[in-house]
Write a structure and sequence with these properties.
single chain, mainly alpha, 18 strands, 10% strand, globular, binds 1-deoxymannojirimycin, calcium, EC 3.2.1.-, signal-anchor, membrane, transmembrane helix
Length: 520
Amino acid sequence: MHPPSRQDYISINFAGQGSGSYNNSKQWRRQSCWRKWKQLSRLQRSLILVLLFICGIASYPAVTEQLRAIWREAVQEAFRHAWKGYKDFAWGHDELRPLSKSYSEWFGLGLTLIDALDTMWILGLKEEFEEAKTWVAAELTFNKNVDVNLFESTIRILGGLLSTYHLTGDTLFLDKAKDIGSRLMPAFNTPSKIPYSDVNIGKGTAHPPRWTSDSTVAEVTSIQLEFRELSRLTQEPQYQAAVAEVMKQVHKLDGKLDGLVPMFINTNNGQFTHQGIYTLGARADSYYEYLLKQWIQGGKKENELLEDYLQAIEGVKNNLLQKSSPNGLTFVGELSHGQFSPKMDHLVCFLPGTLALGAYNGLPADHMDLAKQLMETCYQMYIQMETGLSPEIVHFNMHQGSTRDIEVKLADRHNLLRPETVESLFYLYRFTKDQKYREWGWRILQNFNKYTKVSSGGYTSINNVRDPDYPSPRDKMESFFLGETLKYLYLLFSDDPNLISLDQYVFNTEAHPLPIWPSN
Ligand code: DMJ
């Protein structure tokens, strides 16, 4: 690992006047300037000050634009570095292992490459995009005897192919999307129509995990944007029908608490299991995100989705929201059989962005207030750590007399290069134009560069965000670092609100933009 290679400062040189005995010491220059200033009349001085003030104001946008351009270039540079590692050591495989200069397979489908396609397009990395496209055309086949996770392959592969089709207009990606979409359909052949977690895309068989017949609630309710879009594009209704059936059932189910859902659902009887535990983190998170986003995707007409979303946000406020001590950070904890736990996953940091998106789309203004408070908390989860990177899970102190707001257990100190905080920063900046959100994102990017960049190429997850001397690299670059984290950072630093306009697109939970459906 090495520190960031770029130093982002602007250096300005004043040309000195030549003279016989050249004295250019700082002190001499300062005295000489001061003498000249004193010789000016009061009017002259005032005029100069006014001029300087006007120049300052006039040049401010240009200077800040120059800075943003530097930040965007830094994201492109980070992407190229990540891509170099992937290309050199993991080309066509699922994930780069940057330290061992090798790769790991999950589904054996070139996951990182597919997840990164639309990021390259958005970042303007045409050369990299073309070589990836050549691989998709020549090598990507789904006719393989492999088990894939329905949710992960939907959000990363189907979502990535659909968004790349929309951005490029190239039907290669639509054809591939249709192929994987139809191969995932056997997952819905269950007694309850709640899909199994795993599908063999070569054999056309599906099954739950070996130890249970349950599926994860977030997984079965966060595949809808992609399958609905596939139906719209192909005019084949079976994809939309399958995922709508899941939403219809979940809408009616008992076992919710003020709109909050348990984490598991049984594929035989369609009922929630492991009831009484409520979280906005792992296994439930994107259920809430997709309620809002499906409503937006479909033109804000599907009232049940909106009702469920609004009720759930009230459920969060009434049951999971607390403030930490001593500094009063607002956080979202968890509830287990009536017992509150001040535990918050980094995954929950999608929520400020989702709340802000809802408020932008006409939902209550206090959703935006809450978004801003939670955004601050998520940022604190980074800067209060010694590396300036968030751990996977934090616990907040709530008792009087605490000296720090955030505690991290030994087992929770890892950082997987996750996107949720920079994702929310992107939304908050788009809707408020408050520059602080960009500055926070810039600091986070610098910390990724400092502690997770591997010199031979790629970035790595780390084990310990609290040890800047040895963050203990894990030797894995998750595909979402390219699919999501770097994409959201680039969009955060972009001044063009039409670069993926939020009036035209809705991002799936893997940061792949899908079109909002035209009203006709
Ligand atoms: C991604 O695959 C998606 O963002 C998902 O919704 C949550 N987990 C990872 C990123 O953290």
